[in-house]
Amino acid sequence: MLGSGILGDLESAAGSAASDAASAPLIGITSYLERAQTGVWDVRAAYLPEVYLDSVTRAGGVAVLLPPQPVTAAAIDRVIDALDGLVLSGGADVDPALYGQEAHERTGTPRTDRDAWELALIRRAIERELPFLAICRGAQVLNVALGGTLHQHLPDLVGSEKYQVGAGQFSAIDVLVAADSQLARVLGQTAANLSVQCYHHQALDRVAPGLTVSAATDDGVIEAVELDGVPFGIAVQWHPEQDAADHRLFAGLVAAAQAATPKPASPTAAAPTSAAPISVAPISVTPKGTDQ
Fold this sequence. Notes:
Elements: H1 2-23, E1 26-30, E2 32-38, E3 41-47, H2 50-58, E4 62-66, H3 73-82, E5 85-88, E6 91-92, H4 112-127, E7 132-135, H5 137-145, E8 150-151, H6 155-158, E9 171-177, H7 182-187, E10 194-198, E11 203-204, E12 211-216, E13 222-227, E14 233-236, H8 248-259, E15 290-291
């Protein structure tokens, strides 16, 4: 009888775990598609720092990678139909041609495939009111997608490289958060005195219509914006995934994804197909002119 009782407890626990997994929101995270080395292989590969995945799963979500791929309306709708939330991750500089500028000498080589993919994803996500969190490059993609522009090299404006000291070393930067913002509500009491992890040499310049600045530094660099009129639409120039003790932004995204009204399926979405395998490899170098 004891054995059957233990078996029943195990079956109950397994059923509870399966139920939790089934109800966990699916959070898509955009990823790099770069040349990478792992073992004997030296190939283009889709990859993402593990801290992004950990941040989503620790907050109660299920993370899936969204590497750059050919953009069609059907493909974008298929992805958005499947997701409960979206993270635009960090990475290379956005092509300045997308906001009407010539490239600065310190602006990195454009990743036009990733730009096109992420611009299409975020525009469709906004139309569908899909909860999203945009990080570093992701904040810049959001601003450009809605008609804003970027400062291509912050040292020209602030006179130092404190926002990106290089060698993969993040800088602790103090930011001022607007008290009446969605960002402040998510961060709670510490929003009034916030130090964040930064690694960016670019930043938002002209803020796009529909976006509201919710955090900035004392020298005027915009560090966060949010989209008006959506359940959860926050973009930060810093890297919340780098702070293992503080995942409130990811928790806020996952909570919003859980609370969101189920999305109607798009008429352009294709029928489900088997997913193609994606190779994953570690980053070997940080290209010149890259906002992580």
